[in-house]
Amino acid sequence: MHRGNAFRTVVLLLGLGFLYLPIVVLVIYSFNASRLVTVWGGFSIQWYVALFANAPLMEAAWTSLKIATLSASLATVLGTLAALALVRHGRFGGRSLFTGLIYAPLVMPEVIVGLALLLLFVSVGADRGLWTVVVAHTTLTLCFATVIIQARLASFDRALEEAAMDLGCPPAKTFFTITLPLIAPAVGAAFLLAFTLSLDDLVIASFTTGPGATTLPMRIYSQVRLGVTPEINAACTVLIAFVAVGLGLSFILTRSGARHRDEAAGEASADAVAERHAEVRS
Amino acid sequence: MATRNEHVAVGAVRRNFAPWSEPGAEPLIRFDGVTKRYGAVTAVDALSLSIYEREFFCLLGPSGCGKTTLMRLLAGFETPDEGRVLLAGVDQAAIPPHLRPVNMMFQSYALFPHMSVEGNIAFGLRQEGLPRDEIRARVDDMLRLVQLSGLAKRRPDQLSGGQRQRVALARALAKRPKVLLLDEPLAALDKKLREATQFELMDIQMSLGTTFLVVTHDQEEAMAMADRIAVMGHGRIAQLDPPNVIYEQPASRYVAQFIGDVNLLEGEVTGRDGDLCTVSCPAVGSALLVASTEPSAPGQAVAVAIRPEKMRLGRGLPPPGTANAIVGEVWDIGYLGDWTTYVIRLADGHLLRASQANVARFVEQPLTWEETVHAVFAPDAAVLLSR
Ligand SMILES: Nc1ncnc2c1ncn2[C@@H]1O[C@H](COP(=O)(O)OP(=O)(O)OP(=O)(O)O)[C@@H](O)[C@H]1O
Ligand SMILES: [Mg+2]
């Protein structure tokens, strides 16, 4: 038992190291006092200072934030509607096709999605810029949002909505007073995930953007081609911090939603949860 | 008891309450040949049923026989595949749930987990746009009624099962609807609280004139509260009658067995003299005499249904010439305090249940295991069942 645990710990550390060592190195070097990226010259935050003075980089960051906020909002609203359609309308014609269509972008190569969107924008004569990226990112993140919200809705007790309507609450109001508050954690998680995915994306943004709408990953990528500066390390670290916080919150929201559900289901299921936790721990 | 006199008064009102037997009376709720199918399952099967204003109507039946479905049809959560549901003479097909003057208490309670006990109870009142003070007052009333005044601020997940059930009941009652649908409203309550709540429900019905449609698995509860009971089986109504008729005059073997304890002795009608039928039962040996007003021809297969408490037990063999005496030996004895149930084994191995009230505290020589006994019943204590 004990030796098994030690073995597992080693494997876990190796795995985590493999995943995160490059990022850790990058973060450490963003605090490097030396100009040379590969030589440690003492601790300093000068590159962060330089970063905030770098106008093109800051502008790109601002663009990225705008795009992420807009596209995540759109994806969350559309994703909620799509999830409702998938969960509530039971066996409508073409349901599995619709499900497939929603999920396909999850596994579609980004290059293809980007290219397809570019062709679409060109063929409809859309001026490429911030809004085309917003639309493209909405397409990209919609499926993730749908999956998260759908999972929550699938376990949602419809009797709650029926009870509300039974007490005289019209359907639309029922959605806003009963359904939405109860699935809010999932909706929040969907928004944050969509937000971080949009912030992260390079490929699709490169395909669909136009003049004056350079996103942060694009800016970083083009600068790196001219040589890696510690400033870029700093920019990446800030980006990583954003993404980590977003994903962390998203995870916590999903979890708290699940806990709430289990509690509401009563003591019996609380035991089940405890069992499940015990299994996970052992 | 302070409430004694009130209940006598209630009894006087209820004694004369029988709108279903008045020729011209319009029912408040009418199911008219309603069928509801879920895929291959027919949950409600061509069912017709009338419920009258101010009636306390109980649905009894085994699990899965369609009780909840019937309520959901009335509340508007299901649409009938065939037939109509009428409320005060109006077909409800086109009326959505939130506009029906019906409130339902869900079997699963369906409490809103993100609202406090208060919030749950007030929810329906807020939809009506009642003034704040009035909502407050009514919520307080309801909390007092279900004895949860101290827990108003709690969330449903901080309550026990019985407390949740009371919140669900209070939430449905708060709106004072014309029709209340209660799906097993008292199942999770302890005996004392259940009896108290039963009386409260009957008081509410008296004072507000509410019509109740109640599902229960507790036969005593149904007997105690209902004006009429519908015994359901497989999506149909097996019998619809006042409690005493259901118990004393079951219409079929199914109803007799479902309500209370009963001994069914299968046999065949061999003769008839006025209302008195002679039935030969292979299990008993001798012929039994049973009073029956229903026409039954000799040769017809019937069951003699006799309730355990309607038999008298005697030690040894019966005196010669005793009618309806069944001889056997004591197989088992169950002491229940107020009653003792004896299981009597007949010559062919058939088991018969007879219960005797324990009127004395001490009995010199109680009946004991393996003793030969005889059970006697009057001809009009048994019922002949042909279905
Ligand atoms: N939504 C549904 N989909 C499919 N079948 C259903 C559905 N609801 C009910 N049924 C079936 O219809 C039948 C009647 O169900 P219903 O809930 O009315 O039973 P019930 O009499 O209320 O039982 P219980 O006493 O256990 O609550 C059952 O066989 C049940 O499995
Ligand atoms: Mg039910």
Automatic annotation (TrEMBL), chain A:
One of its GO terms (cellular component) is plasma membrane. It is found in: Cell membrane. It comes from the Bacteria. InterPro entries: Bact_Polyamine_Transport, MetI-like, MetI-like_sf. Its main location: membrane. The chain crosses the membrane at residues 6-29, 36-55, 67-88, 100-124, 130-154, 175-197, 232-253. Keywords: Cell membrane, Membrane, Transmembrane, Transmembrane helix, Transport. Residues 61-253 form the ABC transmembrane type-1 domain. It is a multi-pass membrane protein. One of its GO terms (biological process) is transmembrane transport. PROSITE patterns: ABC_TM1. Belongs to the binding-protein-dependent transport system permease family. CysTW subfamily. This is Putrescine ABC transporter permease PotI. It comes from Chelatococcus reniformis. The lineage of its organism: Bacteria, Pseudomonadati, Pseudomonadota, Alphaproteobacteria, Hyphomicrobiales.
